[in-house]
Amino acid sequence: MVRKLFRLFVLLLLLVATTAFYIWFELQKGISKAVETLPDKYVLTYDYHYINHEGQLIIERPRLFHLDFGDLAYANRMIVQLERWQDYHKLDDKLTLLQYPAKGEISLQRLVLHGDKIKPATDFLYSLKLSKLIFQGCESVSTLTAADFESLDLLSIDSNLTLNYHYNVLGSSLELSSKGEFDSLFSYEFDISLRDIHPGDPVSPYLVSSQWVMIDPDILSKRDQFCAQKTGMSPQDFAQKHHSDLLEHLKEQGIIVSEQFVSSYKAFAADKQSLAFTAKPSTGIRLSSFANKSYSELLDALNLTVHFNGKEVTPIVAAIDFMQQPKVKEVDPKEQQRRALERKRIQRPSVSRLQSFVQRKVELILQNGDSYKGTILEVNGRNLRLKIRIRRGNIERNFKPDDIRSVLLLD
């Protein structure tokens, strides 16, 4: 009797161990598949992972690395909470087929960002319209150097953040909400609702609504000190220069702001508590169209509202001088069609993205500039097989995924 009980106990232990190993192995494949979707030269590593008693996937000490610039960020722990236990099953296959879990939450605990290592992103951020407004009066700063990050005390930024998402497959909609804090720089809350979301489709989605709130934005005081040093002024003098240059810049864009905006912004500059933007477009607007719109067009299309220290500014604009707005050059219809196709082209596609295009007609452009059109038959980590139609029938050619510069869907 004792022997039978002992054997039963051993069998149960083996069953538990086998189940635990299977779950661990399946999750490892899912994480590896997610890592494959990162842009070229980005690598994510971590120490180990497991599922806790609450059904959360715990990834210990994840680290984001760039092959050219080194460590970009690392966290003490990443916590992934999916809605159902079965969402973790065969996660790698689901990611390959772009069948994402409907709901989830991702938290990063004690996230550390290396500001100087993320410098390549700052050149892009500075080109954004909002960044240009924030840095008015500090035009000598076209990009930030490592010394600038040190001066701003941004070499190492401690933070905590949480991201929730809800993806509706039938409605092709995505809702994101996030909140967090970045050291003593600022805290934030962010909500965005998108529609016409189709995983794997390069067409930009429509913005339904969005709200972004920055709380205790001490980073703006750091900007005043930094730009004052760059321009040889006192922080108080630079703050006045920033205010006047901001109004002049908007005027050059054809926007004359209201007296309510001027007084509210002055009060905010003297006591920076919170800053909020809310967008509720009355008609659909694709995210990709933002870059081509003027300030006045964005204000109108987004139905934008601004809050300084919790108080809404109404109205924002006193008048729009259409004669002063930058004239948009007319583009030839053929050129418009070519640009539209280029926006749909996926640059440096990952293996998982290419796998999602199996049995789809595509145009491949290789690193050497050669172009091939055909139907993708098979993709793995080392090879892509393409069926190409010719006069006498079809031929098949093999390509290395690393040799593919871009891919464009043709069907």
Overview of the structural elements:
This protein has 411 residues and is α+β, with helices and mostly antiparallel strands. The chain has a domain at 333-409: SH3 type barrels (Roll). It has 11 helices and 23 strands. The strands form 3 sheets. The protein has a 15-stranded antiparallel sheet that branches. Strands 18-23-19-20-21-22 form a 6-stranded antiparallel sheet. α6 (218-231) packs across α7 (235-252). The protein is globular and about 75 Å long.
Computed structural class: alpha+beta
Residue windows where pLDDT falls under 50 for at least 5 positions: 2-10, 12-25, 121-126
CATH architecture of the domain at 333-409: Roll
Helix content: 25-40%
Q: Name the assembly state.
A: single chain
Count of distinct strands? 23
Could you please say which CATH topology of the domain at 333-409 applies here? SH3 type barrels
Strand content: 25-35%
Largest sheet: 15 strands, antiparallel
* CATH class membership of the domain at 333-409: Mainly Beta
- CA-based shape: globular
Radius of gyration: 26 Å
Mean pLDDT: 76
Total helices: the number is: 11
Q: How far apart are the termini? A: 68 Å
